[in-house]
Structure formats: structure tokens, C-alpha cells
Design brief:
The complex is a heterodimer of chains A (about 190) and B (about 450).
Chain A: E1 6-14, H1 21-24, H2 44-48, E2 59-62, H3 74-82, E3 86-89, H4 94-103, E4 106-109, H5 112-121, E5 123-127, E6 132-135, E7 138-141, H6 146-154, H7 158-163, H8 166-176
Parallel strand pairs in A: 1-2, 2-3, 3-4
Antiparallel strand pairs in A: 1-5, 5-6, 6-7
Helix pairs in contact in A: 3-4
Chain B: H1 5-12, E1 14-16, E2 19-21, E3 24-27, H2 33-42, E4 52-55, H3 74-90, E5 94-95, H4 105-112, E6 120-123, E7 137-140, H5 143-152, E8 154-156, E9 161-168, H6 177-188, E10 196-201, H7 203-206, H8 210-218, E11 227-229, H9 234-240, H10 250-257, E12 270-275, E13 282-284, E14 292-294, H11 308-321, E15 336-339, H12 347-357, E16 367-370, H13 375-383, H14 386-393, E17 396-397, E18 418-421, E19 436-439, H15 442-451
The chains are: A alpha/beta (about 190), B alpha/beta (about 450).
């Protein structure tokens, strides 16, 4: 994952609530075994029918509960591959939010009024270190977990960090004893 | 201090602050290939193949294709073959096409007994919440997290808030667990449980069978919940007893499991009370599971909605669904009926649907299919003769898989078709581009197949 510090540029607006991952990347495109190339299928039905228009700007401004539905990481992959670097919305679905942070697509949660102001401004600058979004209407602070912020700023690999605790995991497993779950091998 | 069930399971699995140990990792073909690629690139092994279990479900044809190499669709074939190859390379047990244990990942876990109370369970699928029915902490993850769990058997997790939904009273006759959870999502909204691990409680929950509890927990994600849970009790223990993966010292395990339920006086971050006795059979009218009404109601009028955002969503949904405000739901006529999915494809679901169609015929205007959740469900149903009941009525009886819940295999709606479906999502295009989905219980779906329109199952004969 590449480090993210500042994301700056024009804002694309998708003014709809409860946009689900089936819309972001329809199921017929989940059959690929690669991680790249999903951008051309983003919002496949909506973009092709002309129901929405979307420019691949650095920032996507979306509605509440964005990314609800399935756990498919193909959704953030498609958004990122299309060209978005950050998504600003009043709220996100949990799994989608987590997936974005793993991919290096910055999710920014701000209240509806601030989201509207950013949409109207049409351009914004997001500073991950400061946790601020700056646009013509002002400077808005946003919340992000310190761990997530640290990983994004430094482009860190989660797995490498966790593997540093291998000895602690070994001890945990040794202590689990009878409470350990069933073995799946040898069923 | 009194603890919630969630607190007990969470703290028993915290390896260190924010690092959660995972007891069972379920894997399927769609969300895993990129994770295995990541392991190979980094030269990392799977830490605990013995706590990992894979099956092919999302993509598999339900027409009787017996091996991955025979799947007609090239991309689906590659994906299932890739799963088999990855599992072989990394030593993970896999029940793929041709195995008598193959099936929907959330059906086979409980039926093999690998889903047990007190465990942490993850899978690259949002309906992993299903396993919470056993008093486990179970939730869906993305592919990066799948790779993380494969490599470390742990997950970096922010502790969710806790929420309890307490149901008073019992469900009325004809009203099912599916109706209970649809009514709950209708009340709380599709984002109503976001950020929360939800415990379902109360007499209406306690009297549910395990399949009923799984239906409820399964749809937690449709309310945005991180995980759904139900306290384990005798019903739970009886289900696990005798299953292939049941603990050797079963009584000792039951002793541990009895300590899991939330203590009296445990505090939840949020509490909601719902009158279970007042719940009716439900039907969705829109394009998310929160857009739902009682079957005796009519299609709602967006003009009567207070919030402009809700009004706009409802108008768009009605245009997509081709429905007019004020139309009684019982006049809505599905052309397709799908009984299946991780929500409602267990033997009990099939028995309920079969009891409705027994001796009757599917309406001439309807094409109806039953897709058992697993090969074991299929075998059990066939041993009871349910397949004959369905076939005689005019239903198609198919092989196990996710099938038309999400239409990644050839089972899809065609543009404009309307479907009564026992699945979990009525999103635009979910069951096929331009397809229109109404979520209902197995009984309601079966009755709609017979009548050609929705009926109130409580007074239908």
C-alpha cells in the first residue's frame, strides 16, 4: 500500500443514500481472480444506462450508509482503479469502511451539512495527518482511528505488523487448551 | 461486573489490544484468490490450515455439474479450479463440486458442527453473521483481511459497540423468523445497526429452532450490524451434539458454553425493544431490505414520506420495481419464485415450503425453483421425499449453491422479471440485471408460487 498524506482536487458527487456494493461492482465482475482492472466496471449499470455521470476525480462525495451489502473488496478496488483516492460521506457500512482502509482508499466521515458544502465547493484538500478537509466553505475536521491513520500515512502492511507478534500468538494458542475450536482437517 | 456475551467472547480472543484471534476461517472461491496470491507473493504460509475450511458455493452451477473442470462458464470454472488448487497448495480442506459436503459456506459450517458456541468465526462474505446463531462472534471480512487471517490466524479489529434487541411476546402462527428479521430491519433501517454487535433476545428468540436463529442472525448485515448473536441454550447444544466436528468431551464443552450468555444486568451500548407478537408476514417492496411492509399493506406512497432523501429513494425504488403507490401487496404478481440461499435453504425451510405446495400446483404464470443449501440438505430432503413434493407441484429441484440469491451462476432473472425470493437482498440487479426481487419467508414464497401473487399465509388455505 502506498502512503497517503494529502489528497487534493475536484469532487465527484453521487447524491444517493444506501448505495450498495452490488451497484458499485455488479456480481458478474467478481469472477476474476486478479486484483486489478475493476475500474472499468464501476457502477456498471448506472453509468452505462446514463442514470448517473461520474468523473474520475480524486474525491468522491457520496450519501449515507455508502457501501452497504456484501463484503466484496472488489468495490474499493473498483473505486480506486477508476481514479478515486478518497470517499467522503455522512456514514459508511462497516465492512466497506474497513476494506477501504486496507486498500489505501481513504474513507472520510463528515456530517451531512459539511458533505453538502464540499459538494458545492467542487474542490477540496484532505489532509490525513491533520484530519481535516479544506474547501471553499471552510476547514472541517474528521475522525479516524489512530492506528488506521498511522498505517495510511506510512503505507504499512498489516500482515507484516501482526507477524511481529508471532510469539504472542503462539502463547495465545498454547493457552487456549480445550476452548480451542474444532480442527477442520481430519473431519 | 456483569458482561455481555459479546464481551466474554471478545476478551477471550484478544491476543493483544485490538488483535483478535480467529478460531475458524471459512473460505469460498470468490473472495479468496487474490488473498492466496498475496501469500504467494510474500512467501507466507497459511498459519493454521486446521482452522480453515473451504467450499465452492457462489459460482457453482446447480444443474448437476459434478466437477469444477466441467463448469461451462469459463470464468466460473477458473475461479472454482483456482480455489481447489490454492487449498491443495496450502493444505486447506475443501469441499468443492462433487463432494457430498459441498454447499453454501454458512450452511455447511453449522451442519458439520465446526460452528460452535463461544468461537470467533470469519469468512470473506457478509452473511457470516449467520454463525452468531450459536452464540459465536462471527462476521464478514474483505479479501485483504482474508489474507491477514490466512497468514496470522488473527484480525486487527476495532471493538464494535454492543446492542440488544429484546423481543417481547411470541411470534403468531404463520409468522416466521424471516418475518421477524425483516420487520426489525424495516423498523431500524438498513444502517440502523451499523457499528454494533447485535444480540437478539427474548422469548420469541428462545423458542426458535437453530435454522430459525440462523435466518435471523444471517440478515443482521442487512441492518448494517457487524455481527448478530443469540445466546446458546439446550437447542444449540442439541444441534451440535453428534455432528462430525462436535467436541470429543461434549459435556465439558457444554459446561463452558453455559457460561457464555450475557450476565443479568450486563449493559449494552444500545437497547431496542420490539413486540414480536405484533409482527405479520412481511414482503419487501423496494430495492433494499429496509423497504418492507406487512403483506396486508399496500405499496407505500413516497409522497407521504417526511424526509426528502427517503422520498427520493422510494420513488427511484418504485420506478425500478415497476410498482404504483397504493397497490395492495397481495396483488403483486411474481413470475419467478426462488427458495434457497444462506438465509432460507435448510431442511426446515424446505419442509415448511413443501407443506404449503404439497398436493398443489405452481401457477401457470410462475417458474419456481428450490436450491437446497448443501448436498447434505439435499440428501436429507430427498430422504424425506420433499423433492417429489416440489417436483409434483412443478418446482425445479436443483443442486446446492448460492444460485439465484446473487446470480453469479446461470440462475438469474431476466430483465423485468419479478421474483418472490427467500434470499436476503433485493438490491437493484442482484438476481439479474433489471430483475425485481421481493424478499419473503419460505412459506410466503411457496404460497406465491401456487397463487401467482402474494397471499397472507395466516388465512390462506
Amino acid at each position: 500500500m502506498r502512503p497517503i498524506d494529502v489528497i487534493e482536487g475536484k469532487v465527484s458527487v453521487l447524491d444517493r443514500a444506501d448505495v450498495d456494493t452490488d451497484q458499485i461492482i455488479p456480481k458478474q465482475f467478481l469472477k476474476r481472480v486478479e486484483r486489478t482492472g475493476f475500474g472499468e466496471f464501476l457502477f456498471y449499470d448506472w453509468l452505462r444506462s446514463g442514470e448517473i455521470e461520474l468523473e474520475p476525480n480524486p474525491i468522491l462525495l457520496a450519501g449515507r450508509n455508502f457501501g452497504c451489502g456484501s463484503s466484496r473488496e472488489h468495490a474499493p478496488w473498483a473505486l480506486e482503479d477508476f481514479g478515486f483516492e478518497a470517499i467522503v460521506a455522512p456514514s459508511f457500512a462497516d465492512i466497506f469502511y474497513a476494506n477501504c482502509t486496507k486498500v489505501g482508499l481513504l474513507p472520510v466521515e463528515l456530517d451531512e451539512a459539511h458533505c453538502r458544502a464540499i459538494a458545492e465547493a467542487g474542490e477540496a484538500r484532505i489532509d490525513v495527518d491533520d484530519q481535516t478537509v479544506t474547501c471553499a466553505a471552510g476547514v472541517f475536521e474528521f475522525e479516524i482511528e489512530p492506528d488506521i491513520r498511522h498505517r495510511l500515512l506510512n503505507g504499512l502492511d498489516d500482515i507484516a505488523i501482526t507477524l511481529e507478534s508471532a510469539a504472542t500468538i503462539d502463547r495465545f494458542e498454547a493457552a487456549q487448551g480445550a476452548a480451542a475450536g474444532p480442527a477442520t482437517t481430519g473431519l | 461486573m456483569p458482561s455481555t456475551m459479546f464481551d466474554k467472547i471478545w476478551s477471550a480472543h484478544e491476543v493483544s489490544d485490538g488483535l483478535l484471534y480467529i478460531d475458524l476461517h471459512l473460505v469460498h472461491e470468490v473472495t479468496s484468490p487474490q488473498a492466496f496470491d498475496g501469500l504467494r507473493l510474500a512467501g507466507r504460509p497459511v498459519r493454521r490450515p486446521d482452522r480453515t475450511l473451504a467450499t465452492a458455493d457462489h459460482n457453482v452451477p446447480t444443474d448437476g455439474t459434478k466437477a469444477a473442470r466441467l463448469i461451462a462458464d469459463r470464468l466460473s470454472r477458473v475461479q472454482v479450479e483456482t480455489l481447489e488448487r490454492n487449498c491443495e497448495e496450502f493444505g486447506i480442506p475443501v469441499y468443492s463440486l462433487g463432494s457430498d459436503r459441498q454447499g453454501i459456506v454458512h450452511v455447511i459450517g453449522p451442519e458439520l458442527g465446526v460452528t460452535q458456541p463461544g468461537m470467533t468465526i470469519v469468512c470473506g462474505d457478509s452473511h457470516t453473521s449467520t454463525h452468531g446463531a450459536f452464540g459465536a462472534l462471527a462476521f464478514g471480512i474483505g479479501t485483504s483481511e482474508v489474507e491477514h487471517v490466512l497468514a496470522t490466524q488473527c484480525l486487527v479489529q476495532k471493538r464494535p459497540q454492543t446492542m440488544r434487541i429484546l423481543y417481547s411476546g411470541e411470534l403468531a402462527p404463520g409468522v416466521t423468523p424471516k418475518d421477524l428479521i425483516l420487520a426489525t430491519i424495516g423498523r431500524l433501517g438498513t444502517g440502523g445497526m451499523v457499528g454494533h454487535a447485535v444480540e437478539y433476545a427474548g422469548p420469541a428468540i428462545e423458542s426458535l429452532s437453530m435454522p430459525g436463529r440462523m435466518t435471523v442472525c444471517n440478515m443482521t448485515i442487512e441492518g448494517g450490524g457487524r455481527a448478530g448473536m443469540i445466546a446458546p441454550d439446550e437447542t444449540t447444544f442439541e444441534w451440535v451434539r453428534g455432528k462430525a466436528a462436535a467436541p470429543g468431551d461434549f459435556e465439558a464443552a457444554v459446561e463452558r458454553w453455559r457460561r457464555l450468555p450475557s450476565d443479568d444486568g450486563a449493559e449494552f451500548d444500545r437497547e431496542v425493544e420490539i413486540d414480536a407478537a405484533g409482527i405479520s408476514p412481511m414482503v419487501t417492496w423496494g430495492t433494499n431490505p429496509g423497504m418492507v411492509v406487512e403483506v396486508t399493506d399496500s405499496v407505500p406512497d413516497p409522497g407521504a414520506m417526511e424526509s426528502p432523501a427517503d422520498r427520493e429513494s422510494a420513488e427511484r425504488a418504485l420506478a425500478y420495481m415497476d410498482l404504483r403507490p397504493g397497490t395492495p401487496m397481495t396483488e403483486v404478481r411474481p413470475e419467478r419464485v426462488f427458495i434457497g440461499s444462506c438465509t432460507n435453504s435448510r431442511v426446515e425451510d424446505l419442509r415448511e415450503a413443501a407443506a404449503i405446495v404439497d398436493g398443489r400446483k405452481v401457477a401457470a404464470s410462475v417458474r419456481a425453483m428450490v436450491v437446497p443449501g448443501s448436498q447434505q440438505v439435499k440428501a436429507e430432503a430427498e430422504a424425506e421425499g420433499l423433492h417429489d413434493v416440489f417436483r409434483s407441484a412443478g418446482f425445479e429441484w436443483r443442486e446446492a449453491g448460492c444460485s439465484m440469491c446473487l446470480g453469479m451462476n446461470p440462475d438469474t432473472l431476466i430483465e423485468g422479471e419479478r421474483c418472490a425470493s427467500t434470499s436476503n437482498r433485493n438490491f437493484e440487479g442482484r438476481q439479474g440485471k433489471g430483475g425485481r426481487t421481493h424478499l419473503v419467508s419460505p412459506r410466503m414464497a411457496a404460497a406465491a408460487a401456487v397463487e401467482g401473487h402474494f397471499v397472507d399465509i395466516r388465512n390462506w388455505s
